[in-house]
Amino acid sequence: MKGGAKFNTMGFDRVIRRNITALAGIKLKVGIQKGATATGGGLIAPYAANNNFGTKTKSGVQKIPARPFMTYSADRIADWMESAAFYEVVNDVITGKITADMAATRIGMRAVDITRRTIRDSALYKPNAAMTIKRKGHTRQLQDSMSMFRNVKFVRVM
After folding, report:
1. Cα R_g (the chain), whole angstroms
2. Is 147:153 a contact under the CB 8 Å cutoff?
3. Pick from 140, 138, 142: which is nearest to 116 by CA?
C-alpha cells in the first residue's frame, strides 16, 4: 500500500517560479549617470567622482577630501535590502500583486531616495575648509548647487 499525500498546486508553483525568475533578471544602476549635466551646463559625473574619491595636487597635497557618498549609499541600500520593506516588495512580485518591472521601479526609487539622503547627511563628511565656506557662503558639503542631488537617478541595465 502506498502512503503520502498529494498537494495540488493548481499551477501556482509555475506562476511563483516565473515571477521569481523575472525579478532575478533585473539589474539597476543607481547614481549620477553618464552624460548628466550640472545646473551651469558642465558634466556632473566627473565633479561627483572628484567629491566621492577626493583629489590631490600633482605634489600629493589633498585638494578635495574624499566624501564617499556613493560608498555610504551602497551600504545603506544594502541594509535596506535586508529589511522587511524590501522583502515585502519581493513578496508582492511572488504573489503576483505587482510585476517585476513595478518592483524594479519601487526598488530604484527607494535607492535614489537613500542616495539623496546620504548626500544631504553632512555629518558623514569632513567639514569644508574655512576658505571654501567663505567662498560658498555656507558649510554644507556636496550641496553647493544641488546638481549632484538632482542628478541621482536609476536606470535599468539590460
Report:
1. 22
2. no
3. 142
Residue 119, φ and ψ in degrees, nearest 5:
-60, -40
What's the rounded Cα separation, in Å, for the pair 146 and 98? 33
Please name every residue paired with 64 in a beta bridge, in sequence order, or none if there are none: 55
Q: Say what the pTM is.
A: 0.77
Sign, CA dihedral 111-151-44-66, equals: negative
Residue 3 corresponds to which cell in the numbers above? Answer: 502512503
Q: Are strands 62-64 and 152-157 parallel, antiparallel or unpaired?
A: unpaired
Distance CA 104, CA 75 (A): 19
pLDDT tens, 102-143?
999 999 999 999 999 988 876 666 677 777 767 777 666 666
CA 138/CA 77 separation, integer angstroms? 29
Tens digits of residue pLDDT in 2-26: 666 665 556 667 777 777 787 778 8
Residue 27 three-state SS: strand
